Amino acid sequence: MSFFSFGQSAEIDVVLTDAETRKKAEHKTEDGKKDKYFLFYDGETVAGKVNVTLKNPGKRLEHQGIKIEFVGQIELYYDRGNHHEFVSLVKDLARPGELTQSQTFDFEFTHVEKPYESYTGQNVKLRYFLRATVSRRLNDISKEMDIVVHTLSTYPELNSSIKMEVGIEDCLHIEFEYNKSKYHLKDVIVGKIYFLLVRIKIKHMEIDIIKRETTGTGPSVYHENDTIAKYEIMDGAPVRGESIPIRLFLAGYEMTPTMRDINKKFSVRYYLNLVLIDEEERRYFKQQEITLWRKGDVVRKSMSSQATIGAQRFEGSKSSVSSVLDLKCRA
């Protein structure tokens, strides 16, 4: 990226020290496309070089200082003028003066706190980036480089099963059970559905995975529901005493870990939505929240402190999720 001013111009390039070996991760951009970015975790050091290349050799470039920033920020799409920064680190690379030739500056942000996962949603974006700036009187020269952050968690100590009985009085009584309430992103949801009483003619049954993104607070709260997956359980009428197994693989779907009240700006939650449709096309449904977490592929020493932090942030349930609730009917 080139920037021009009177007499002299320069191009800035940011290069990470471990660019050749650092893993990259795909991340969805605001326009829905996918790009690959360098992947970091909480507590990792971010280091590299800033190359300032003069476009017109022989001419000097006066500046008011050169710096690099590491920024973590949240942008709400309905409030684009305000960027909410939750991480803001600055390193001064050069004092005010002039450059007579192209120059390289080293930088290092040691053990940087990156508390949240990178996220691009319907109404909100959470991003991390490096921004190198050559400050000038009339116009600054700057360059940004985005990175992606994944938050890792250890296996939750408490991970009880979900047991629920749902029904319509004297018409339908179903008991369903999922093997646990917290799943990592490549996990398998295993469960069973038991039909204890069937007096209505059900022709179809499915389980949906719903992602609910919530932004804003108070009266300015926005909810966006997105159906991530549909899993057909049954096509045909069940009979009393019948049981149907469920086995749903999560690895094939694009999901993030559950994100609760991130910097008091937004949340991302996931639900299992049980849907029954009778022969008169009436829909009966019941939702149950599940927690998703990211499991590290390889346990590394540099991840140990981050994993501990992730485990502390992970909300453990104190008892099994078990209840008797009525199915809601949607005509």
| Mean of residue pLDDT values | 84
Uncertain segments? 1-5, 298-331
Which band does the percent of strand residues land in? over 45%
Largest sheet geometry: 7 strands, mixed
Distance N to C terminus: 56 Å
* Tally of contiguous helical segments: 1
The tally of strands reads 25
Rg estimate, integer Å:
26 Å
Helix vs. strand class: mainly beta
Organism: Oncorhynchus tshawytscha (Chinook salmon)
Protein name: Vacuolar protein sorting-associated protein 26B
Family: Belongs to the VPS26 family.
InterPro entries: Arrestin-like_C, Vps26-related
Describe this protein's structure.
The protein is mainly beta. It has one helix at 304-313; strands at residues 2-4, 9-16, 24-28, 34-41, 46-54, 61-63, 66-76, 83-94, 97-99, 103-109, 119-120, 124-134, 141-150, 162-168, 172-178, 182-184, 188-198, 202-215, 222-235, 243-249, 259-262, 266-278, 283-293, 321-326, 328-330. It contains one helix and 25 strands. Strands 3, 4, 7, 8, 11, 12 and 13 form a seven-stranded mixed sheet that branches. The longest helix is centred in the C-terminal third of the chain and has 10 residues, at 304-313. The N and C termini lie far apart (56 Å). It comes from Oncorhynchus tshawytscha. Belongs to the VPS26 family. One of its GO terms (biological process) is intracellular protein transport. InterPro entries: Arrestin-like_C, Vps26-related.
